[in-house]
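Input.
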Amino acid sequence: NLAMIEESVAYLKQHQREVLYDAEHFFDGYRSDPKYALETLKAAQRGGADKIILCDTNGGVLPLELQQIIYAVRRVIGTPLGLHAHDDSGVGVANSLIAVEMGIIQVQGTINGYGERCGNANLCTLIPNLKLKLGIDCIGDDALKKLTKLSRFVAETANLLHQANFPYVGNNAFSHKGGIHVDAVLKKSTTYEHVEPSRVGNKRRILLSELSGRSNIVNKADASNIRLHKSLPETRVLLERLKQLEFQGYQFEGAEASFELLIWKAMKSYKPLFELEALRVITEKRGPGEIVTEATVKFTASGETYLTAAEGNGPVNAMDHALRKALEQVYPELKAIQLMDYKVRVIDGQDGTGARVRVLIESRNSQKSWSTVGVSANVIEASWIALVDSLEYGLLCRREENISGFQEDVKKLKALANNA
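Output.
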C-alpha cells in the first residue's frame, strides 16, 4: 500500500500534474494506528505530492484532538497541508479555522455546507470568518459582498430551502426582534451585530412580534416611507394591535405588505377599495380524479355591488378568479398582479385538524413582489384574508403612484410624524 501511494503520486508528477493527496479517513486511521497513518503521508511526500490533505471523512474529530494530530503530522511532514472536514459533529467550520491558524494553507468545503450526511465545512461561514475575523485576505471585498446572493442561488438551484439561521447569509443572521434590542442596534449596531451585514451582502431586518417595542414599529414604518414617532398615540395603538394579532397566531416577519396595511389602517388614512358581503366556496368530487371547486363572492366597490362566481383548481384559485372577475372592471391594474406562492402552516397541532393555520401568499407585479398573511381556524378564511391583503396592497401601491388622493393621505401621515 505504501509503495502504491508513492508510485501513484510520482507517476502523476512525472506527467507534470499538480498532485493533491487526499488522505481519506486520516484522523480515524491515526486513532487506530498513528505510526502507520503517518507512514502513508510520508509515502505521498516521497512521491512528490504538492499538498497533503488531512481528511476527517467521518466528521467525528473535535477541535482539540484535531489540533494535537496536526501537531504530530507537522513534526514529520514538510509538504504543505490542507484539511477536508465533514460536519457530523457540528464542528466542520471550527476545525477548519483551527487548522488554518496552525498553518494549513488549503481548506476544502462546499457552499452552504451541502454534502453527504450532515454535510461539509460551510464555505459561506468559513470565508467571512477567515476574511473578517482572522484577517486573511482570501477573497476581495467586492466578491465577499456577493456571498449572500451566491448562497441563495445555490440553494435555489439545488431546490433546497435556504436556511434562515445560516451564519452571515441567512435571513435571521442580522434580524432583531425584542424592543430593547432594536432600540440599541439602531443607536449602535455593534451591540447586537458582530459584523456589518452589507460586508457579506446581507441586510439588517427589524422583525415584528409580541416582543416588539415602539422602535420596531417606527423602523418598519420608515422602511415603508411612512414616518412615525415613538410618541405618537397612533404608534401605541399600532403596537397594541400588533400584539393582539401575534397572540392570535399572526407573524409579520415574512409578510411586510400586511404590516404596511396595518399601519395605514391604524393611521386612519386607509379607505378599503372593496368590502366583502358574502363568500361561499364549494368543492365537489364528481368522479375518479375529478374535483371541481367553485367560489361565489359578493362585495361592494366604488358604490356598486358585485356578485360573481368562478371555478378554479382549488379554493384559493377559485376565490381569486371570482374576485378578479368583477374587480378588474373597476381596477384594471389588477391584471398586472400575479400570485407567485402559497403556503399553509399549522400554528399549534394540539387541536389536530381543528388547529389554527397561518397562510402566507406571495404576489408580484412588474415592479416588485410582496407577501401577506392570514390566520384562522378555517383555512378558507385564512386564505381569503391573505388574498385580499395581497390584491389590495398591490392596488394601493399603484394608486399611491397614480392617484393624488392617496398621495395626500401619505403626506398627512408624514406631517403627523413631523409635528410629533
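Confidence is low (pLDDT under 50) at residues 401-407.
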